[in-house]
Each structure stands twice: as C-alpha cells, then as structure tokens.
C-alpha cells in the first residue's frame, strides 16, 4: 500500500465481530509480561476468595482480545493505510467491568473518521471498538487514533 489515504475511505464501515475466548493462562502470561502483581490476575484461589469465578483479566488486556478485530480494520485494502509512514496517535478505553477467564467476547470495529491534517502533513485514521459478552452486554469500548505522515513529512 503506497497511498496515505483513499479517494473515498469507507468511513462508517463496520467489520464483522471477531470472538475471543478469555483464557486463564493468557491472563497470567499478560499479567507477568506487564509486571502486574495483583493476585486476582495470577492466583486462582485469590480470585475465587475475592468472589470471582476465575482469574480476572487486567484492564489493559483489552489490547489482547481486540487485536485481531482492530487488525482486520487496519489492514483493510479499502482503508489503505501506509504502514511505513504510520505513527501511533492515541488509544482511549472504557470498561464496564473486568473480564473473567472462561468468558467469550465479541469485538466489532468501525472506521469512524479519516481526516487530512494539511498543516501537520498527516492523515488521521480513527477506529472505534465495542466488545460484548453473552447476550450483548458491553464490557469495553475504545478509540484508536493513528496518523500517517505524508510523502513530504
């Protein structure tokens, strides 16, 4: 992909939901990788003693269970992001409750906006996600902003 934007980006395009099974060992692996020491994320007995059915995923585990869904949007040829010029802008997340090992979540991603920022030589791509569990209970939402530098930047 060589362009920094498309002539008519698919703003508003929603991508099919992708599911993720929250696994006990994945929670432990993530917690160890980021230096999390809260026993709710590492020790099944401690999590159960605190009233949870299983290990509790740390809040930023959101990047694990949303990664395939956001990746599908980022790599969509219709969006045409030039990854050689990509600069991370921002991420914002909201959670309604923690996820527990054993839950299956579904994440839907949407391309919310694409804007040329001529004064900065950037094209800004804004994606949002909504992750649900069970009968549609929203457990997290997020906004992912990425910038692509122009050819002269």
TrEMBL record:
Residues 11-139 form the FAS1-like dehydratase domain. It holds the Pfam family FAS1_DH_region. It comes from the Bacteria. PANTHER family: HYDROXYACYL-THIOESTER DEHYDRATASE TYPE 2, MITOCHONDRIAL (PTHR43437:SF3), HYDROXYACYL-THIOESTER DEHYDRATASE TYPE 2, MITOCHONDRIAL-RELATED (PTHR43437). This is MaoC family dehydratase N-terminal domain-containing protein.
């Amino acid at each position: 992909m060589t362009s920094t934007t498309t002539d008519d980006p698919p703003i508003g395009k929603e991508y099919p939901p992708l599911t993720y099974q929250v696994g006990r060992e994945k929670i432990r692996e993530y917690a160890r990788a980021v230096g999390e020491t809260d026993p709710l994320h590492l020790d099944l007995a401690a999590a159960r003693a605190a009233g949870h059915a299983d290990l509790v995923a740390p809040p930023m585990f959101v990047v694990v269970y949303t990664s395939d869904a956001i990746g599908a949007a980022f790599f969509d040829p219709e969006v045409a992001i030039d990854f050689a010029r990509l600069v991370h802008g921002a991420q914002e997340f909201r959670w309604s409750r923690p996820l527990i090992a054993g839950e299956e979540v579904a994440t839907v991603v949407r391309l919310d906006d694409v804007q040329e920022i001529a004064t900065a030589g950037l094209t800004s791509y804004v994606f949002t996600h909504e992750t649900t569990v069970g009968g549609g209970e929203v457990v997290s939402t997020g906004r992912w902003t990425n910038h692509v530098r122009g050819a002269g930047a």
